[in-house]
Amino acid sequence: MNLYKTAAFVTLFSALEHGLGFLYRIVLSRTIGPEGLGVYQLSLTVFSVFLTVCSSGLPVTLSRTISKHRAAGNRKREEAAVSAAVLLALLISVPLTLLLFLLRTPFSRIFSDPRCADLFYILLFGLSFTSVYAVLRGSFWGNKRFLAYSLIELAEEIVMIFTGVLLLIAFGSGASVGRAAFAVLLSHLVSFALALVCFFGRGGRFRSPRGEFLPLLRSSAPVTAMRTASSLAGSLISVVFPMRLMAAGMSSSRAMSAYGVICGMVMPVIQIPGTLIGSLALVLVPELSECFYRGDREKLSALVGKALGTTLLIGCLLVPLFIACGGEAGILLFGNAESGKLIAESALLLLPMGLTMISTSILNSMNCEKYTLLFFLLGSGAMLACVWFLPQYLGSGALLAGMAADHLLTATCSLLLLRKKTGKFRLPLLRLIGMTLPSLLAGLAVRALCMKVMGCIPALLLTALTVAAAEIGLCALLKLADFRALAKKFLLKRRLPARGPSASP
Q: What is the pLDDT of residues 1-54, one digit of tens each?
């Protein structure tokens, strides 16, 4: 399976997974409301800090280590690396879980709402299981077993959604926030069990981690530190942001609702491109690692240019749609007008966010974790400054402004380092602008006209179709995508099976 087929395959599964998750988020928002969604999101954010400490650096480091050993044809070292990663995850997660349960009373005081502590301790039961699953997922990644990876991720999402919806419907909304946490815990246990079955079923085995434990620990530490800092920053923001909103004049309930609207409604929409970009990164990282360790600079530069160009194209295709349709989409999806307004206002955030995501993955695959950690800290500092000083001027929009400052700074630093590491790569910036602006203007014009003469849903559909048609036409005109080549390739593949070796010409 070549790179593009694999990327398309992984993207299909990832889009299905995230699409189901997005629908589930709509159910949650309408069932538990913005305040309940804020409680749920805050609990997940704090839990993610400890999950990050236990395993976040291990999957990407293990994947890169496996790619290195695969290039050398050393199967025993691969198995030793997997064993070392599992042992590391358990040595961190098990004592941490026991300590948190022993210190439950003092630790619970960090939450302003006692419901958050209850949800956190439900999730904590699955910490060790989820940490080991993350390691096994990294082994699938490094061995390019994308089918197993994708199917398990999809199964986890389905279990969470099915259980969550069942509990919400069966027991009503009185204690539904806690029941939603039970659904997350069950999904984590299922993904762990499936990963074990797949690992051993495909001939995986554990062996002595001697020779791999310390190198894996040293290599994963910077990634873990960066992602732990990221999770800590997210947890800090979840505490500071409502506090600063309250200092600006909001009530406690309204501040928690504002946090729930942004993190539970706006961000799932803004992060839609992450589905495609994450799939691209998933497929590219093993390939980039192999090129990096082989010293194939020319191929490495070409892959980096394609990855960055594709990321920008994905963002530019969605920006006009979000600006033109975001306001009404928030009302239709979540029943919340403020979420729609913020979706439209934060559409341009898609571009630096996407570049940050793909460039960080690329740099980590090239053993540049220390640099990505530094860039992250710079961006997080900018974000925290915005969240602290801007709520009195921008209200809930201060958090989005902070995200924009964070990703702009991080993306700029990452791109400069990539340029230094891989050489020059061209990005079709002018052509992307030439596609995005006319498509946006066409969408806004059609939306303004249709809203006057028809209902909201038909008007949004026509607006979306107009934007899509303009983008397809301009992509072809500006040669951002070769639709003829894709069509010919597709038709050729459909004809080939009918032609056997003995068929007449």
A: 455 566 666 767 777 887 888 888 888 888 888 888 888 888 888 898 898 888
* Cα–Cα–Cα angle for 353, 359, 361, rounded to 5 degrees: 105
- Taking each helix axis as running N to C, give the angle between helix 176-201 and helix 127-142, from 0 to 180 degrees, rounded to the nearest 10: 40
498: which DSSP letter?
G
- In whole angstroms, give the CA distance from residue 120 to residue 500: 60
* Sequence-separated (6 or more) residues with CB below 8 Å from residue 332: 456, 457, 460
pLDDT of residue 87: 92
Sign of the Cα torsion 62, 66, 67, 72 reads positive
One-letter identity of residue 379: G
C-alpha distances out from residue 254 to 63, 101, 236, 264, 399, Å: 44, 31, 19, 15, 15
CA distance 451 to 459: 6
- Rounded to whole angstroms, the Cα distance separating 421 from 409 reads 19
> How many Cα atoms occupy the beta-carbon half-sphere of 320 within 13 Å?
30
Q: Which residues contact 354 (CB under 8 A, 6 or more apart)?
A: 273, 274, 277, 311, 312, 314, 315
> Can you give 125-166 as a three-state secondary structure string?
CCHHHHHHHHHHHHHHHHCCCHHHHHHHHHHHHHHHHHHHHH
Domain range annotation of the chain: 3-427, 430-486
Is the pLDDT higher at 230 or at 86?
Answer: 86
Phi, psi of 421 (to 5 degrees): -80, -35
Two structure tokens written together for 34: 């913005």
Stretch 310-327: mean pLDDT: 92
Give the other-Cβ count within 10 Å of 103's Cβ. 10
Structure-block tokens of residue 345: 């206002």
Longest CA–CA span in the chain (Å) reads 81
* Dihedral angle over CA of 427, 432, 434, 437, nearest 10: -140
Task: Indicate the length of the chain as a whole number.
Answer: 505
pLDDT digits (tens, 9 = 90+) for 411-464: 999 999 998 888 777 888 999 999 999 999 999 999 999 988 888 889 999 999
What pLDDT does 13 receive?
A: 77
Rounded CA separation 472/338 (Å): 31
